[in-house]
Amino acid sequence: MMTRAFAAAAAVSVLALAGCERAAPEKATEPAAVAPPAPAPVVDSNVLTPEGLGPVRIGMSAAEVASAWGAAPPPDDPSPEGCNEFHPANAPEGVIVMIQAGRLTRISLIRDATQKTERGFGVGDTAAAIKQAYGGAIQAQPHKYNPAPAEDLIAWSKGGSTEYVTDPAARGVRYEIGTDGRANIIHAGDPSIQLVEGCH
């Protein structure tokens, strides 16, 4: 027959065992997998877009442009609202920038430029090919100084309209077509692409 002391000891052992089972830690959960950050978009240094060319983006400060493409020459107009157009020391051949009030507003391709727009057009391409590629997305305007077939072809990618655009957030491309029917200058950037005499 089981003694009282033995029974009591057995009961204590059972309770202690039950307590151990209840106190057992829950199984550790695996930490949630963290997705790696998305890689930064690759910016093609040979493709001119309404947002910029290579490391240089519309809206950058003059100091940022100088950091990317070399020091800028002294401004023609030193006033806070001044405007200057120039070829930065280390910019690609045939690339001109416009700095207005200390910010990059326009990038232009001139005679020696080898870059193309995001539609694949560069200096020397025909107005006919440009119009065909853009379709109704491009606006044709008479050239201010030269007779037809010279004209200006403007395509807005953001914030544009058929009127003169003043919204600083607007972005577009303008092809200056010469009397030979070919693009002789290409501008990309904010509403400053509409200026026909440099900073004016």
Structural commentary:
The structure is a single chain. The chain has a single domain (47-194), classed as Sandwich (protein yfey like fold). With 200 residues, the chain is an alpha+beta fold. The protein is globular, with a radius of gyration of 33 Å. It is built from three helices and eleven strands, in the order αβββαββββαββββ. The relative contact order is 0.14. The longest helix has 20 residues, at 4-23.
Q: What is the strand tally?
A: 11
User: Major sheet: size, sense and barrel closure?
Assistant: 7 strands, antiparallel
* Number of helices, counting only DSSP H or I runs of 4 residues or more: 3
Distance between the termini: 114 Å
| Rg over alpha carbons | 33 Å
- Average pLDDT taken over every residue: 83
Q: List the uncertain runs.
A: 1-25, 38-42
Helix content: 10-25%
**CATH architecture annotation name:** Sandwich
| Large-scale geometry | globular
How are the SSEs ordered, and which strands pair?
Layout: H1 4-23, E1 47-49, E2 52-53, E3 56-57, H2 62-69, E4 83-86, E5 95-100, E6 103-109, E7 116-117, H3 127-134, E8 139-142, E9 151-158, E10 171-177, E11 183-189
Q: How would you describe this structure in keywords?
A:
disordered N terminus, 11 strands, single chain, protein yfey like fold, globular, seven-stranded antiparallel beta sheet, four-stranded mixed beta sheet, 200 residues, alpha+beta, 18% helix
